[in-house]
Amino acid sequence: MIYITQLSSRSILVSFPEAI
Predict the structure, then answer these.
(1) Would you give the distance in Å from CA 6 to the centre of its chain?
(2) Strand (E) or helix (H) holding 5
(3) pLDDT tens across 1-20, in order?
(4) Cα–chain-centroid distance for residue 9?
(5) How many angstroms separate the CA atoms of 4 and 18, rounded?
(6) From residue 19, how far is each of 1, 5, 12, 14 by CA, in Å?
(7) In terms of pTM, does the model score above 0.85?
(8) Rounded to an integer, what distance in angstroms lies between the CA atom of residue 17 and that of residue 4?
(9) Residue 8: closest CA among 16, 18, 19
């Protein structure tokens, strides 16, 4: 579960700069 959370939070952080 922790591994999935790390992956999702990582993709959110990556998509934030891309959206700007």
Answers:
(1) 7
(2) helix 2-19
(3) 667 777 777 777 776 666 55
(4) 3
(5) 21
(6) 27, 21, 10, 9
(7) no
(8) 21
(9) 16
